[in-house]
């Protein structure tokens, strides 16, 4: 556990540095949400209906923007080989790196959601629902994206490959995240059903993601 906690702290420090990627994702999320009201126009009712989808799309794209560095920096400086050969199971190391990425890049998006919801004419209840769905769904984006990052780490043009692999896997998370948020705003669907499916998707990705990423790294680094 000491090695895993040290790995988490190290990855968080690297992500929070200038150019580490976490700040880039937050700024991209902010830019998408700020520009959308100018594109939609002065229709506040339409803006409030589109608000959850805008926030979720911004979070999804911001997550993809930073995932390509999940293993790439370690591969470039050789530390990925040390992680692979260490006594700590590679699956646990992958899970720790994904957790560190979510804490550094995903959690700030959730914290910023209540403020950005004001720009989209969302009331406190709707903004709270979107933040709750992001809290439940963004881990699925991170652990699913980790698989694509592991596959792309040893390949040329890996960023493009990761986007092609990860986007289809992220669509169910996007669908149920927006559906749960919309249920609070317009109904008639209840909030519980899509939110439960969203939580299930995160739990499934939490179990499958580290094993699939570890297998991809072992195959790619051999």
Helix and strand element order = HHHHHHHHH
Low-confidence stretches: none
Number of strands: 0
End-to-end Cα distance, whole Å, is: 26 Å
Question: What structural category do the secondary elements indicate?
Answer: mainly alpha
How large is the count of helical segments?
Answer: 9
What portion of residues is helical? over 70%
* Overall spatial form: elongated
Biggest pleated-sheet summary: none
Radius of gyration: 18 Å
Provide the residue-averaged pLDDT.
84
Domain module tally: 1
Q: What percentage of the residues does DSSP assign to strands (E)? A: under 5%
User: Quaternary state, please?
Assistant: single chain
Question: Would you give an account of this structure?
Answer:
This protein is mostly helical. The protein has one domain (2-220). It contains 9 helices and no strands. Helix 3 (44-67) runs parallel beside helix 7. The model has no long low-confidence stretch (mean pLDDT 84).
Short overview:
This protein is mostly helical. It contains nine helices and no strands.
């Amino acid at each position: 556990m000491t090695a895993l906690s040290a790995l988490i702290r190290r990855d968080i420090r690297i992500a929070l540095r200038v150019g580490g990627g976490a700040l880039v994702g937050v700024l991209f999320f902010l830019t998408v949400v700020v520009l959308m009201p100018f594109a939609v126009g002065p229709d506040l009712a339409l803006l409030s209906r589109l608000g959850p989808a805008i926030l979720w799309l911004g979070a999804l794209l911001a997550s993809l923007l930073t995932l390509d560095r999940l293993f790439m920096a370690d591969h470039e400086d050789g530390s990925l080989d040390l992680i692979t050969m260490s006594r700590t199971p590679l699956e646990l190391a992958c899970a720790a790196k994904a957790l560190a990425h979510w804490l550094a890049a995903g959690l700030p998006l959730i914290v910023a959601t209540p403020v950005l919801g004001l720009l989209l004419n969302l009331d406190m209840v709707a903004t709270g629902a979107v933040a709750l769905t992001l809290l439940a769904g963004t881990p699925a984006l991170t652990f699913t994206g980790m698989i694509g990052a592991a596959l792309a780490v040893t390949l040329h043009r890996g960023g493009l490959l990761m986007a092609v692999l990860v986007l289809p896997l992220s669509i169910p998370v996007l669908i149920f995240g927006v559906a749960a948020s919309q249920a609070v705003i317009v109904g008639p669907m209840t909030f519980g059903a899509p939110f439960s499916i969203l939580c299930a998707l995160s739990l499934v990705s939490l179990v499958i993601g580290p094993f699939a990423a570890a297998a991809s790294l072992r195959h790619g680094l051999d």
